[in-house]
Amino acid sequence: MDLDDIDHRILRVLQKQGRMSNAELSEQVHLSASACHRRVQRLESEGIIRGYVALLDARRMGMPTTVFVEITLSAQADEVLEAFEKAVSRIPDVLECHLMAGSADYILKVVAEDTEDFARIHRQHLTRLPGVAQMQSSFALRTVFKTTALPV
Predict the structure, then answer these.
(1) What highest taxon heads this organism's lineage (predicted)?
(2) In this predicted model, what pLDDT tens digit does every residue of 4-57 receive, in sequence order?
(3) Residue 93 structural domain
(4) Which of 21, 22, 26, 78 has its CA 20 to 30 A from that of 121?
(5) Helix, strand, coil: what percent of the chain each, to 5?
(6) How many domains does the chain have?
């Protein structure tokens, strides 16, 4: 799908404030309300806009600890990868899982209440993942920068 300057403006605004009304959005992107509404519907139907979410503050939700876990699997066969991916997707504390090129096969982003809670997650979930040969965890000391907005 070809995106023009107006589409980019709409996407930039919605990434920062997704709950605004169509009237507010159309005013910010300098477009009539009906034309703006049609464009947003097109962006949604084309899958450019996948959905709308509320971004929660992990610290205020009692999960201030972020841990990045590097996973190396015992094999690279499709069935091993599929079994791992299916199992890891069911762990509620895992926010992200990325298949990697490099020293680790996967990197997980895990949230926890504290180190004891991470020890529980590790013991109850991570150690039981299929096909894992090696695991290394790194605790984030502080989040310097974080965004969900793509550069458009």
Answers:
(1) Bacteria
(2) 999 999 999 999 999 999 999 999 999 999 999 999 999 999 999 999 999 999
(3) 65-139
(4) 78
(5) 35, 20, 45
(6) 2
